[in-house]
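Two folds, back to back.
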Amino acid sequence: MEDARTPIQESIDAEALAPVEAVVRGAGTSFYWAMRRLPESKRRAMFGLYAFCREVDDIADGAAGVAEKMEALGRWRGEIERLYGEQPRDPVTRALKRAVEEFGLRKEDFRAVIDGMEMDARESLRIADMDELDLYCDRVACAVGRLSVRVFGIDDDIGLEIASALGQALQLTNILRDITEDAERDRLYIPANLLSAHDIPAGDISAVLNHPRFPQVCDTLAAVTRRRFDQAKAAILQCDPDKIRPAVMMMEVYRRILDKLAHRGWLNLNLPVSISRPGKLWIALRYGFFP
């Protein structure tokens, strides 16, 4: 049973949550569709997680210099320490305070997300091999998954499996979708050893993306992504459907994005791929309301 909240505590919660909910609603992402039917306490927790991720991601992707980005991310490390100690100061961590207490969210997972953002905050980014790509995905996506399954109420034994498989699948889909956008920031997440296996020199990004064998590399990474989706689905089938619906909805949206990417092919990387609003609504109806 939840601890009783005083009127003052409830007022503080509401004050902290208002800007967080505004961030989520204004983002126009699949996340809002997936989380909107959660019970209030879980929805608030997930909105807080989203807002935290959005804050640190905006720092990593921003126009500031590397030193400024690292300093800003360092401030967030301090804010996470306050979240688990003294009263946090930022509206986002204030909104997360109750979620940490209620759902047992772990500090190391918040730290891991910041570690991942520090990788993105460099002037340029190259990934050496699949082990480094796995580490990156674990930090920026699977760590968020570990926090999320605790909010959903999934047992750790199966929850950690879902967080790993689905988190990596979602992030690999993002990587395949955003290749040209990332290239503009001098980021290439395709592992150098995978490029080398297809005799593609891991030098200039433009040359890599326009290499005639680059589509084969994307097909290889897409196959890895599909396997991770399949592993996530197998684990999800072992869960209470009511608890895991948000993860199922995210999985279905991103599987469709991956399918659209494969259908588009890898020769015209500038052609955008997304799921329409009616498509998201259908997924919300199909997987949000029915077993």
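---
second:
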Amino acid sequence: MEGLLSFDYPGKIYPVNHHSSTVYGIRAYPDVKSISDFVELAVLTIPEDSVERVVQDCCEKGVKGITIVTAGFGEAIEGGRVREEAIAKLARAHGVRVIGPNVSGTLNLHAGFNASPLQHLLATLLAGVSQGGYAFGDLLASGYGRRMGLGKFIHTGNECDLQVTDFLDYFGKDPQVRGIVMYVETLRDGRRFLEVARRVGRDKPIILHKAGRTLGGIRAARSHTGAMAGSKEVYSAALQQVNVILSPSMELLLPLGHALIERPPMRGKRVAIVTMGGSWGVALSDRLEEEGLIVPELSGPAQASLRSLGMPLRASASNPVDIGAAGAMALSAERLIEIGRVIVASDEVDALILHGLGRAGFARDETPVGRKISLEVEKQVMRGYDGLQQEFRKPVILGSHHSSWESQTISDLQGEGLRVLNRLDEIAQMLFRMYEYWRKMPEGE
């Protein structure tokens, strides 16, 4: 109820509660059958021992869809799976489809619909399908500050009826969805999933995190959703054949999903780095090459072009291009941006990373004027680099060690919608998977 009301859902809401005549000021009904209007969807947040009776009422009422939030079935108790099968059989007999049980809810922010407790939501062009729900709430909360989120989300839970494959198919046909992120513990019909993924993946990136890859994870998955997880080698091989992008972590799902639908294609493995400190350049080079990318030395002519822009003699122009603190202070914002433009415009690199701006600290009334000017210069440079990727159709990644709650610059830029990544492994993993995805896609896609 809170989710629906907080997003000003334009449709009709019918609370059912036999203990109260109103819920949040809206007339409540003692049972589903007491509602005179046609009901499209029922969301059940009721005691586990009442589920079958209420499902029966919904079927007799003519409800078309049921979401069972209630837990305590196949994931938890002996005989729970049998009860789930009975619920699905009853629903199918009446032409009713069921999500769940054991779900956190569903949302379609483009329609103002949030039948979940999830907060910190943004109506983006990404959709999410997950066999685990509340963890996605954490991901959405952490992504909110970076303007990352899901416009549509389905938690499938125990999947007594509808499964992740059904929603992959659905989102594949949805014009409001440009990319799909998934959390999967098991696939109950692997062959059908691969068929659907192959078709959907021709038009939209599918980013999937496969959980339950270890013995401990398999055991946890069984108690979480009642899932029987399979071999990670089998999953990986099969999914890569249909160009599903495998995310090594749940945390990478949103950054990678947004990168694939928002950034230009990455057509090669060569990455250039511009940094304000040598150590970050070395560490980032290691992570990129460990991931499978290349940090090539720039050619003599390219280095000469960079030097002509006034780089300090002690600064490195080879790649990583280490401007250093002296260069960052001496060069204008326009010159710093031009360094990036020269690199991206060359045919020697396929992507560029700017790392090292966005220093810690916030501007206060008592902050020295020089520091405030420095903050504005940082933002100007980072905006300029972000604009290069559309100008030259190559990915340009903004990286900073500091997050939005540590840095005025990062907070302001992310408020404008610029994406700034804080972890070197996240940057490297994201870029490599962008390359892997676009390597398999025809030119012009």
